[in-house]
Write a structure and sequence with these properties.
- GO terms for molecular function: S-adenosylmethionine-dependent methyltransferase activity.
- Keywords: Methyltransferase, Transferase.
- One of its GO terms (biological process) is methylation.
- This is Type 11 methyltransferase.
- The protein has 211 residues and is an alpha/beta fold.
- It has a single domain, classed as Rossmann fold (3-Layer(aba) Sandwich).
- Helix content is 40%, strand content 25%.
- The protein has seven helices and seven strands; from the N terminus they run ααβαβαββαβααββ.
- It has a seven-stranded mixed sheet, sandwiched between helices.
- The longest helix is centred in the first third of the chain and has 19 residues.
- It is globular and about 40 Å long.
- The protein starts with 5 loop residues before the first helix and ends with a strand.
- The chain binds S-adenosylmethionine.
- The site of S-adenosylmethionine has 22 residues, from α1, α2 and α3.
């Protein structure tokens, strides 16, 4: 049933995509996971939350490099989580939930990461404050997503806004940093880069400012 609720649209879109997601998007997902891990400050004792973990590609990469780190993934779509569960070690915890209403107690995580998910969030300010709630004081937030600084991404954004069912919006690095800072974080750095001729990405790193 068509619906105007952004959460329903995301759930429908990814329930339908789950079975083919890894093969259809393998280059893109592997390249963005690799780029994110290379920019992720993670110690073996850290507790990390991957929001919008999808089929678990980033978590699998992290668990191979940091077997002692405590890794958790959250995603609203059961079909995506089922694939993640099959590929990940049982020590990696998976939960169903939305970035805007995370199913975790306060101050649980040292690092929160989100890869290829930020442009879906309908209420980014709510989500960023919710992420801050679950981060320890001075915890770190790392966002990898499409980067509106690149013309091609702005074109894809415009197309997806017209025809995509679940798409929200793409941000320029400056816009993303301003949004995150307003929610109570300090920018560590933002970096933009291309993974091929088409895809321009950014990875932006932040620290939660203690209240
Ligand atoms: C493009 S996929 C990315 C999956 C994975 N992070 C990756 O890089 O392959 C986007 C994922 O974000 C999830 N998602 C969308 N909106 C979300 C929200 N508001 N909160 C949490 N997850 C969300 C979707 O269910 C989907 O699994």
């Amino acid at each position: 049933m068509p619906t105007n609720d952004p959460h329903d649209r995301i759930t429908q879109e990814y329930a339908g995509l789950a079975d083919t997601y890894d093969t259809r998007w393998s280059f893109y997902v592997d390249a963005t996971a690799r780029a994110t891990v290379a920019r992720l400050p993670l110690c073996d004792s850290d507790r990390l939350l991957d929001i919008g973990c999808g089929t678990g590609v980033l978590l699998r990469r992290l668990s191979a490099i940091h077997p002692a780190a405590r890794l958790t993934g959250v995603d609203p779509v059961p079909e995506m989580l089922a694939i993640a569960r099959r590929r990940l070690p049982s020590a990696v915890e998976l939960q169903r939930g939305w970035a805007e209403t995370l199913p975790f107690a306060d101050r649980q995580f040292d690092v929160v990461v989100s890869c290829n998910m930020f442009h879906y969030i309908a209420e980014p300010d709510t989500a960023l404050r919710e992420i801050k709630r679950v981060l320890r004081p001075d915890g770190r937030l790392v966002i990898t997503d499409w980067c509106g600084d690149y013309l091609m991404c702005r074109v894809l954004d415009a197309y997806q806004r017209l025809f995509g069912r679940a798409h929200g919006r793409v941000y320029r690095t400056r816009e993303c940093a301003a949004l995150v800072e307003q929610a109570g974080y300090a920018t560590v750095d933002t970096e933009r880069y291309k993974i091929d001729w088409r895809w321009g990405l950014m990875t932006a790193r932040f620290t939660a400012i203690s209240d």
